[in-house]
Amino acid sequence: MNVLLEFRRDFLLAIAGLAVLLLIGLGVDHPWPRDFLTSIFAYGLLAMSLNLLIGFTGLVSFGHAAFFAFGGYTFGLLLQSTGFTGAMGAWSVPVAFVAAAGGTALYALVIGAICVRLSEIYFAFLTLAFQMFLYSLIISWVDVTGGDQGLMGGIPRPEFLGVDLSNPYDRYVTCAIVFVACLMLLRVVTESPFGYTLRMIRDNPTRTAFLGVNVFRVKLISFVVAGAVAGVGGVILALFTSGAYPEWAYWAQSGEAIFMIMLGGLTVFLGPLLGAVLLRILNDVVQSYTTHSEIVIGIVILAVVLGLRRGILDFIRDLWVEREQSSLRRAADDTSRSAGGEAGR
Known about the structure:
Blueprint: H1 2-27, H2 31-57, H3 65-80, H4 82-88, H5 92-115, H6 120-140, H7 142-145, H8 168-191, H9 193-203, H10 205-210, H11 215-241, H12 251-264, H13 271-287, H14 293-308, H15 312-344
């Protein structure tokens, strides 16, 4: 019953969050809020999906952005194919979306089957090696990917089911709905028995294996889910930019996602999303004043991590828990003193 109540609560919060996003995007005439939030939808899913591996499963991936790029390129290449759009017609966008997410999941399955068998440091660097292989493939396969220029000519946005993705409002609403749906999916996964199994593996994989859990299979499922959600983030960014670019598969993109998690917090569900918001705002503000944005952003991240020794939401949560525990201790002390006084009388 408690699980059902928690699901209802999370679902209502997701609906309320979607309503706020739609109110901001549709109620403000200036395009900046829509553009900024759409970029947050994409990079937020990248960071949140990576935290499914880092924060919940204990797998630190240095190459997670490969799935982000794979989803974006798959979606863009399908819509640029006249044969595909001609055959699918009005359904080309939803079919391309499903194909991009499914293709990314299959790609993650192949990569994960190789990587999750390895220990932490080898896992991290092997994921980076696979990412750089994809990046090299994108750069060298110029006839298909456009090389270092990215997909040329833009991505078609045909109308489907009355939704015109060439209209910025329709496009924003579509991206917002997909974003909230993916967040809800991640929430259900992390709060399910499967999610608590991931936490057991993170804390002590050997003991988890002794309990009869197939650790390899659980890690692989987590890896595939995380890759698929990152691919959806790439689809959103491809829709937003009407293109796909090799920088999405570069190692720095994965590093940026890790920075988002470190900045926002890895033990609180929405921590990486807060980190994505703060990092994007910080990047926009710093670039308006100096060209040395990487130095300034690095200093800020170091100050937060070294000063708080955790992400922002992690710090707030721990502070709240400490205050609650202090209140309980004071209440217990008062009760014991009152009981002692009554016994003395």
